[in-house]
Design goal:
alpha+beta; four-stranded antiparallel β-sheet
Length: 104
């Protein structure tokens, strides 16, 4: 099966990006630590928008992405981040093609 990837844009309420990142560093990262199909789970600060966090996620296959998204841990993560979010996350699903440092 082919790997699958995801870009997610999380927009925090004004001035709350660091609070959102704290939840990501705590709950988000502990959630994915036990997910064997989650290969990359990286949050990035937007350099041009002080309220935006970008995620790049790489999964071994579509089943791994579905397991991650449907897990009880993700429900807890969603509840924990809700108070800091200005809107629902924007999700872009990707099929990896070429990369340095990643095997396909």
């Amino acid at each position: 099966m082919a790997k699958t990837a995801l870009l997610a844009k999380l927009t925090a309420k004004e001035g709350m990006r660091d609070d959102l990142l704290a939840v990501i560093a705590d709950i988000g990262m502990s959630n994915v630590a036990g997910e064997p199909g989650t290969e990359v789970y990286a949050a990035h600060k937007d350099q041009n928008d002080a309220d935006v966090v970008w995620f790049y996620e790489l999964y071994s296959d579509q089943d791994a992405l579905a397991a991650h998204g449907g897990s009880e841990q993700m429900k807890v993560f969603g509840q924990a981040t809700r108070e800091f979010m200005a809107a629902r996350p924007e999700l872009i699903f990707l099929d990896p093609a070429v990369a340095k440092g990643l095997e396909f």
